[in-house]
Specification:
Layout lengths: L2 E2 L6 E2 L4 E4 L4 E2 L3 E4 L2 E4 L3 E6 L2 E6 L11 E9 L3 E5 L6 E4 H4 L19 E9 L5 E4 L6 E3 L3 E4 L5 H5 L4 H10 L2 E4 L4 E5 L3 H16 L6 H13 L11
Parallel strand pairs: 4-8, 11-13
Antiparallel strand pairs: 1-3, 2-7, 3-6, 5-6, 7-8, 9-10, 9-12, 10-11, 12-13, 12-14, 15-17, 16-17
Helix pairs in contact: 3-4, 3-5, 4-5
């Protein structure tokens, strides 16, 4: 007879027995050993019918094609920029993927992106040798001006964004901040004033630290209502 030994959203450790019997199936972060399903990582249980999945509490960012990321210019050559995206290898942004402008050979590339500039980009390719290419040639990808940068655990990004963007929308509407969440755990935000930027930052960090708490959406709404006095802001726009 099969037996489930854990509950949904329970924190488990590597080697912990999650279920006995053949009625349950292991997914990410879990394996079958004989009649038992065993956790292979520390994380939070996610149950979906008979499927048992472990969502890691912490993880390092590993680029996937199509990921939208936030990064900054670490170095540049005569034909490309090297972008720090929080991965073991810097991503490469070539001239053809940076702009539709014709750039003459030997031109000063700092007129487009200079050391320390932040940007929103998309992962265009990842090779077997872990080389990463990014692009800026799609809508919404751009250089970022001003604002502030927050770094969170990449494993928390889905919770910070929320289902269909619901959680981040709550923060935007309450603070009037423009917010871009990179899949690499780097977040850029810019608000109408310092106060609202600080409130948005605190709300995001609360989610980062308590992402698997029950009722987190309601807690976040209550926190924002208390800190803003219940005011709703239109999202701040660039001048």
């Amino acid at each position: 007879m099969s037996k489930l030994l854990i509950e949904d959203k329970e924190v488990v450790i590597p080697g912990q027995i999650l279920a006995e019997g053949m009625d349950y199936l292991p997914s990410n972060g879990a394996i079958r050993e004989g009649d038992n399903i065993i956790s292979t990582s520390m994380g939070v249980v996610s149950l979906s019918g008979r499927l048992i999945k472990i969502i890691p509490l912490t993880k390092r960012y590993v680029p996937q094609i199509g990921d939208v990321v936030v990064g900054f210019v670490k170095d540049l050559t005569y034909s490309s920029w090297f972008i720090d995206i929080g991965y073991s290898n810097d991503a490469v942004l070539s001239m053809k993927d940076a702009t539709s402008d014709f750039i003459e050979r030997g031109a000063d590339l700092t007129q487009y992106f200079s050391h320390g500039d932040y940007m929103v980009a998309k992962i265009a390719n990842v090779t077997k040798t872990k080389a990463v290419d990014i692009t800026m040639r799609e809508p919404g990808l751009k250089k970022l001006y001003g604002g502030k940068i927050i770094e969170v655990n990449p494993a928390r990004v889905p919770r910070i964004i929320g289902k269909q963007g619901s959680m981040i929308k709550i923060i935007k509407d309450s603070t009037g901040c423009m917010i871009t969440v990179g899949q690499n755990g780097i977040i850029w935000l810019k608000g109408p004033d310092l106060k609202n930027e600080l409130i948005a930052t605190e709300a995001i960090m609360r989610i980062n630290e308590c992402s698997y708490t029950q009722g987190l959406t309601e807690q976040t709404e209550a926190f924002l209502k208390e800190r803003t006095g219940g005011k709703q802001h239109g999202v701040h726009q660039e001048a």
